[in-house]
Structure formats: structure tokens, C-alpha cells
Fold:
Amino acid sequence: MANNNENKVMSAGEAISRFVTDGDELIIGNYTVGTCIELVYEICRQKKKGFTLYSQSGILDVDILINAGCVDRLVTTYTLRSGGKKGGGALERALQAGTVEIEDYTNYNYNARLVAGMHGFSFMQVFEGIMVTDLFKKRSFMGEDKYRVITCPYTGKNVVTVPAANPDVCIVHVPRADKYGNAQYWGSMGSVAAAALCSKKIIVSCEEIVEHDVIQSSPHFTIIPAYRVNAVVEVPWGAHPTEVLGYYNRDRSFYGMFMAANASAEGAKKWMDEWVFGCEDRKAYLEHYIERFGMAPLNKIRARAFYSAPANYGSAFTSVWDETGREQTMGITLDEMETILKERGLLYE
Structure:
């Protein structure tokens, strides 16, 4: 468990090197939008491999990891496979070559696994309708453990369950965090919080690191507390070409360029060599982007400001003890309170 008041700021390279190990169960915390692209790139650059990858909604992130040879097994609900079996894509090529195994869940059942893991349960009950589908009938590397049918101890009826997920490490991108790891997120939540909190280690990348006072002034945005976080990486444009609410929209042209390249193994390798392995970090990636396309495409997708109304978190006082050390209601000090309790036989030491 990480420390609550430790400065955890480090580079993406250091974070991945320290906390991601070959053969890990790795979960991509983001769901469809604003995904942790720079952390994915860094895993590829460091040639990490042998992952069982969890991804609720794989867009280009999953295919990039597969293109780099990082993934052996995939647990998912959806991965973009443009064009189907004939359309190409890294996952489709890997499945046909037999280099990646896959277990497919519904969104609800995938989330049930994360929620069970987040709360410390060993399993979660799900709707029995899944039993008539191929999602239930077809098993891959999980075998009998993909779903189990048990007897309810209360009704005696058969119920369908999924096992808790507790991945070794979660990588997740958020709008902002402080140096301790308090990570704040707004917008389309999906399974982001559960994905992080069910995991043993958490690496947070963010658009900006802010002062702790900012975090304290808006606690409702904090979805991952500092004591659960192992590393904080400040990386502006760290989710590009996906979007981050309040910062930038999706870069559709760049996204399309990747999809076109990813349609063939040769095109994917050329794209990976240029944009992943050819850029040592996000700074180099942005410099290369600007060199190729100029600043205009990035400026076009920068978010326009649209602020929520502030909430008043004020109170008459912040502690039951006043500035002189006296309890606000009774007007006595802690020593005086202990004396009274001791005299009445109510003080337990």
C-alpha cells in the first residue's frame, strides 16, 4: 500500500520500470475516452511482455500493445476490430495466428468482476440470462472459472457468478492529480474508479499536477485516493489522440491514420516505429506531430472553457477545538476533559 503524504511524481519511464513486470495482469483503467496512451506507449518502449490484459473497451490502446508483442491473454467486452475478420487489425491478426487468447464478457459482467475486486469479495452474482449465450458457453484460458453456477444459501436456487478481478497493476489517465496521488476525474466515468481500486498497484498519468489545496477544494472529483497510488506522471496531451474533457477533443484525423496503418501488419509496424518506438517520450511525440502536421490540428481540438458552478464547502469552523484549544461546545481543554472522565471512571487508557 502506498504512502498518503509521499511525493510520488516521476516520469512515465520510471513508473513503468518500477511497477510493471513481465507476466503481470495489467488493466487499462480508462473506458473508451481519455485513455492512458502515453503509459501504453512506454510499456511498449520498454518491451514488457506476457500480460494478461484487462480492457473494457479497447480502442487503439489494445491494438498498440498487441502490435508490440506485449499481450498473451485478453479479458474484454469490446475491442475495435475494424472490418471484422477480413478487415485486419492487431487483435484479429493475433487471434488468427493463435498468439493471443481472449475471454469475452458483457459490460455488466466485466464490471461485476471489477466491483467484486474493489470491495474485497471473491465473486459477484450476475444475471442468469447469460447462460443461454456463447459468452457463457465458450471458454478460453479461464475455463470453468469464467463463470460458475452455485447454489444460493438463502433460496436454494442456482445463481451465476463471476470471479473477482484483482489485476497486478492499473494504468489510468485523469485530468489532474496532486503530487501525492489524489487523482481527480470528471466526465464519462464508466468503470474507471473500479478498475483502479480493484488493482494491487496504480500508476496515474494526468494532464496537470495541481496543489493539494485544489484537490481539497473539490473533493467530489477525487476517485482514487493518494494512499492507493504508486506513481504520478504529469504528461500533457497524455491521452492523445483520444479526448480529455476540459482539455482537448479526439484527434479524428490522427485516429484515422492509425486505423488505416493498423489494417496490415506492415502498416502497423511502420506506424509503431514512427510514433511509439521513434519517440522517446510524449514531448518527443508532440514535437514529431508538430513537425509533421503543424500546431493547427492541436489548436483546433483544444477545449473551450465551460466551467461548472462552484459548490460551497464552508462551515462555521473546521474543528471541534477552537484556536485556544478549547472544545467548541463545552469550552474546556482536552486535559480538562480527560480529568473529568478520569474522575467519573470513564477514561480507558
Remarks:
- DSSP finds 13 helices and twelve strands in the chain.
